[in-house]
Amino acid sequence: MNMHIALCLLTRKAFLILVSLAFFTFSASAQRMMKTINDGWDFRKDGETRWQPINLPHTFNLDAYSQRNYYQGKGEYRKKLSLSEIAPTKRYYLKIDAASKAADVKVNGQVAGSHAGGYSAFILDVTGLIRENNEIEITVDNARRDITPLWADFTFWGGIYRDVWLITTPEQHFNMANYGSTGVFVSTPVANEREGVVQVKAEVTNDADSRIRLKMQNRIYDAQGKLLQTNAQPFSLKAGETATVEYKSDVIDNPQLWTPEMPTLYRVVTAIVNAKTGEVLDEISNKIGFRWFSFDADKGFSLNGKPYKLRGVNRHQDQAPVGVAIDDEVNRRDIRQIKEIGCNFIRISHYPQDDALLDACDELGLLAWEEIPIIDIVPDTPGYDDHCEMNLVEMIRQHYNHPCIMAWGYMNEILLIAPTPDKPEWPAVRDRTVKLAQRLEKRLKEEDSSRVSVMAFHGSDLYNTIGLALGDVAGWNLYQGWYFGELPHFEQWLEDQHARYPHRPIIVSEWGAGSDKRIHSVKGRPFDFSMEYQQEYIEHYLPYIENNDYIAGCAYWGYVDFNVAARQESMPRVNNKGLFYNDRTPKDIAYYFKAMWRKDVPVLHIASRDWALRTGKAGEEHPIKIYTNLDEVELILNGASCGKQCTSNYNTIFRVKLPEGNSSLVARGYRNGVLVEDVMMMTLALFPDLHQGDELAVNVGSNCYFISDVSHLTWLPDRPYTAGEWGYVNGKGRSTTSEIYNTVDGPVYQTWMEDITEYKIDAPAGTYEVELLMADVSRPARQQANLLGKGDERASAVSKRFDITICGEVVEQNFSPADNNRYLNACRRRYIVNNNDGCIDIRFTPLQGKPVLSGLKVRRL
Ligand code: GCB
Ligand code: CA
């Protein structure tokens, strides 16, 4: 029976049903189809013969976790892809969400295209190349010098570390050749409490070889999914033509505004419809938010007409052990966590991030500053500027529709490693930097005049004097009291800038201090990496930011500890300024932010999770800090009250006598008559008693406890010798940020007593094991330029040499901790000595340079 006869046999009604069914199935299959093709890839590094099976997202730089000079070069990816059929009327595309830094793509041996830039998506039309059975080959290169970033304080992870998509569309579709964007651009030209208007500019392509009549249909839904408006406008496209179709909605009355507290999202669904058949050919859905904002040099930031402090963090994307090869849910979890501590703002630093992150910002309510990674200095590499501009356009077009975005940035601390103005190379660097800034500023405004432009400066006045303060808002990255200067220099810097440039809005785009969970002090100092100094630094900066209207807000540096292969310090390869550890568990300090920023919930946190193992003498008082937004807190130790204390600056410190062993701590307070509690366990280990055979370990030359995360041994802060006790007799405390090799307890070696000639430990007579820890750091490794001048010890030409005597016995002669050229090497020696007179006396006799001692361990045998 042929079709014709069959149709004749049908009733009219059945015929109509059949036709509409046919259309339904036809139109469903005719529309855009998107799927990830992340699985089943092979990978090898350039020059390797063996392929290894991997899945995307993938990075080939897990070596950044273990070595400073991580692999920078090419990586090859390949995948077999079979399709059940190739439809002659369909278009086929590969969308690669990020390949760092550059990618060359082949399909079945033919060049499909290439891309420069490691942080934005690109789309390649592979229609002419694709078959039923395919091989896709992508060569990625993270060593290219013509693509930014070239210098920066983070690892330039190579790989295809976001999704790869196969997209098929009908011959008429939204433009797939617009800088990796969807080709559909949505904005809200009118947005206020009374009225909202949505505008859509859609680029539509006709890849067929004949003219076609089409309609662009837009449907607007409210947050509850109710259809508010629908509109269809006819247009036609010639064969091969791409045209922009514009639509402006009718007024939406009294729109619910988007705010971080109530991120109401409307939706606009834009479709291309075949005017003749009614068939939907392509469709893109966008979420929209009605909000407006402004920056003012005196009043700071305003959202929807009201003053609004921007409270934020900077976010890097990596998480061990996967590096930047993170899944979407990692992005979403991070945004939830950032919201949780009360942020309403995020600086997406220092490069465009995953769409999943931007979506989460829209949905959970975080205002965002996003930027491209032009960092530290502008090189004169040919092609660099063009790639920068292209990456800027990609970022803007790919993320244009996100209501969360309010600022686009394009340079970070761009004069940080530039030659100083007295150097002959300066004028050229200055001129090309200003030229590139002007070019990008202009392009940014052409692309998007509805957002502000921003740049982040480091603490140098040159930005003002050479004309780099050309953006709408000046971002200052300030580290007074950390890399240099003292804490009050922070507000002095800002006040001076505000006074001299009274019309320029200011945001504190970075501020932060490092901390290492193994390091603690009751009197922290800059660069000791104690958790406690990080708290002191933050407790100084944040109230100033909060209480001064002219500061639009801030982004703390940073949300998490993140990987920097080249960084050294107490945790080599980690920038440890995070409010959260790299695994996303909070540091205690995260609760200070939460206490300050969350007014909607009671916050009460015993800030001793990071330091739950204390060491002390029986009866000694220990500080227990509470972060809270309650006015008054009671602390209960092992069931007994330690009293109530009023809080100020969102904290209070109790001084409590912990008994030996485990204790329970309960913090208690009331908010609106409702009980709020926090509970934790702490442990006190008694101060080592050599009479009892305890192991005494001293972090010589340091004010800090060091609790090894491997042995769990506590190395006590050093102190001067007093009779009946132990300590140094002389010497000068020194420290380095250079990495110490061949140890897991680096920080013990990074602080030392220099020029020491004697160390004394009063202890009962007997046989002892005495262990000395030393390192010769007089040839420090080159530090990252980003360390803003810290850690540049001057290299000395000669190694240190000295004799060591313990209890009158010579244990080392002409000793050098750097023997065999082992500078920066952990050197640890153990001696068995007899103490006959109640004092273990350790003496150092200098032969060349100054003797050093970094750590000391004593145990009675
Ligand atoms: C900065 C940089 C940032 C660094 C940070 C730091 O000023 O913008 O990339 O990671 O300081 O910790 O030194
Ligand atoms: Ca030490």
TrEMBL record:
Keywords linked to the UniProt accession: Glycosidase, Hydrolase, Signal
Keyword Acetylation: no
Domain Glycoside hydrolase family 2 catalytic: 298-598
Domain Glycosyl hydrolases family 2 sugar binding: 41-170
Biological process terms in GO annotation: carbohydrate metabolic process
One Pfam family linked to the record: Glyco_hydro_2_C
Residue ranges of domain Malectin in the record: 696-845
Record-linked InterPro entries: Beta-gal/glucu_dom_sf (IPR036156), DUF4982 (IPR032311), Galactose-bd-like_sf (IPR008979), GH (IPR017853), GH2_Domain-Containing (IPR051913), Glyco_hydro_2 (IPR006101), Glyco_hydro_2_cat (IPR006103), Glyco_hydro_2_N (IPR006104)
Domain DUF4982: from-to ranges: 619-676
Secretion signal, residue range per the UniProt entry: 1-30
Keyword Signal: yes
A molecular function (GO) term: hydrolase activity, hydrolyzing O-glycosyl compounds
Domain Glycoside hydrolase family 2 immunoglobulin-like beta-sandwich: 184-291
Membership in a protein family: Belongs to the glycosyl hydrolase 2 family.
Official protein name in the record: DUF4982 domain-containing protein
